[in-house]
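Before going further, learn to read the protein records used in this course. The integers have meaning only within a learned vocabulary of local backbone shapes. The record below shows the convention in full.
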Amino acid sequence: MKKITAILLISLCLCFILSGCGGERSNAIDDFYSKLKESNSFKMTFSMGTLNLVTEYDGNKTHSSQFLFTPETYTEKVGDDVFEYTEDSDGRWVKEKRTENNSNRNEMLNESFVDLFDGDNYNKTGDNTYKQKKDADFGDYENVVITIDGTELTMNLTINTNGTSVNVSLLISDVNSTTVTLPNVD
């Protein structure tokens, strides 16, 4: 269960980064998503109960905190190559070229995830709060509530898969002000 949840959260994160929406938009959700897609850097924090996965994006570099069975990881894209930085058992950082690209846009596109950032799928319920419309279908994602507070977006939702429901929170912050510094390797 924990591994499935971790994979879902990482997939959710990658889908968000790699997917795009077409068409003109005119509400705060659409405006935030457009700014995010045009940004060079930002931070995403996934929370599931007391578990948190923090992923920072800075141009061609990422940093992901340790989460469940996944170690703290940095990545760097250079041309068509993706390099991964992880700590070895002696605590030294090691740089390795990935043999598979986990961020293939075509594989990661998920229509229900893209729809999460379509303002037409929400009713405004407060000054900065939007709730999923009853007729909006996000596949495995339900009970979605988005709050936009200045330059931060918080999304609370339930992921339902294989008969299991998991409440998740996503915070997107530090847009265009996140810096990732790669670790030194020997």
Q: What stands out?
A: Residues 2-173 form a domain with the outer membrane lipoprotein receptor (LolB), chain A fold (CATH 2.50.20). The chain has four helices and eleven strands. Residues 7 and 70 are 10 Å apart (CA to CA).
